[in-house]
Design brief:
Strand order of the largest sheet: 1-4-5-6-7-8-9
Distance between the termini: 14 Å
Length: 356
């Protein structure tokens, strides 16, 4: 097997081919900022600094792709949400000051301009800068911040929106989610225009940590499906990340049509590989706490070995199950990369898949 660049091996997995080794795309924006000697408060209003942090970290550790991410507050901020900025942690929406004081306010909400609304332009500047610097050989995933259900929670206030699901007219709820889907699509398509090789959303509020699988199917699934189709019809692979134990909805997530599902560490990845379509790429799912922060290098190696064996290397991108902590020991991160190279090698994948 001829050696591939990082970009080539990521594209090979997306195309259903066996690469020279399984690619590694960690959820590492906070770790990258720490590696670069910065603080998240230094970069969350400066796309060039975020890109520089990723460049420094990727070149130091040699992984295959970078996920452009700042926080969970940017798209909500772009349409009027109040944001709390912190020096050492990602910014967060101040839900005590909801933008949607009444759900009917949604009919007067603006459509953000990715080039001028809030900090959307800084995410896109990070993407452009990173693509220009290393995008010819490294995979760049420009996240489009949050998915429809999560945006609705951030604009209305999570507790109040949960009450709305039970008390408000379903058509009004659907109109709110359609607005949130629309603004998410605007940002996702702008990531393609900025040069990203793929784009993605986080939709954690749609997960089982907050709502039941039945409520996910009733309210969150269709907006995710529509968003996925619109973005991928625009010509860029789309990824969905939902935090938590998604075993009860992973089959539904596979029905969205997303080319990639970024899966958290609590998911049974072996079962997930059986439940989602064969051409869906699974990205994950090493626990970012144990072993990556509090385990040993040997613990990290064992976890990576187990997750590769669970999928047989089929359409699999190795990643942390959620955002890596900035306190991840460098020796554990090095062990993470090394184990992926060892157990995700072309020869090992052929053996796992019983290919002669």
């Amino acid at each position: 097997m001829k050696d591939m660049t990082s970009l080539q091996r990521c594209l090979a997995v997306l195309n259903g081919e066996i690469p020279d080794m399984l690619p590694v795309i960690p959820q590492s924006f906070m770790f990258a900022v720490e590696t670069a000697g910065m603080k998240i408060g230094d970069v969350n209003k400066n796309g060039k600094k975020m890109a520089q942090a990723h460049i420094i970290s990727q070149e130091k550790y040699g992984y295959d792709g970078c996920v452009i991410d700042f926080d969970d507050a940017t798209i909500a901020e772009a349409v009027g949400a109040k944001v709390i900025f912190r020096e050492d942690e990602p910014a967060t929406v101040d839900e005590s000051c909801p933008v949607l004081k009444d759900l009917r306010d949604v009919y007067d909400m603006p459509i953000p301009d990715p080039l001028s609304s809030g900090r959307l332009c800084e995410w896109l500047e990070a993407t452009r800068t990173l693509v220009d610097a290393i995008g010819d050989h490294v995979f760049v995933m420009g996240r489009a911040d949050q998915g429809p259900f999560s945006i609705a929670c951030l604009l209305r206030g999570t507790t109040q929106f949960m009450m709305d699901l039970l008390t408000e007219d379903q058509k009004l709820i659907e109109d709110v989610l359609e607005y949130c889907r629309t603004i998410s699509a605007v940002f996702a398509k702008a990531q393609k225009d900025a040069g990203a090789h793929a784009t993605s959303i986080g939709d954690a509020f749609a997960g089982p940590n907050l709502i039941s699988p039945d409520l996910y199917r009733q309210f969150a699934l269709e907006p995710e499906k529509k968003l996925t189709q619109e973005v991928q019809d625009y010509g860029i692979p789309f990824s969905i990340h939902i935090c938590g134990n998604t075993n009860g909805i992973i089959q539904d997530m596979g029905m969205t049509g997303a080319r990639i599902l970024e899966i958290d560490w609590m998911l049974d990845i072996k079962e997930a590989r059986k439940l989602v379509p064969e051409d869906t790429v699974l990205m994950g799912n090493i626990d970012p706490s144990f072993p990556l922060v509090i385990g040993t290098s040997s613990d990290v190696e064992a976890a990576v070995k187990n997750v590769i064996e669970a999928t047989g290397g089929r359409r699999h991108i190795i990643s942390s199950g959620c955002a890596m902590g900035r306190n991840t020991p460098p020796e554990n991160f090095k062990a993470f990369i090394a184990a992926a190279r060892k157990y995700g090698s072309y020869e090992n994948i052929l053996e796992l898949q019983n290919i002669k």
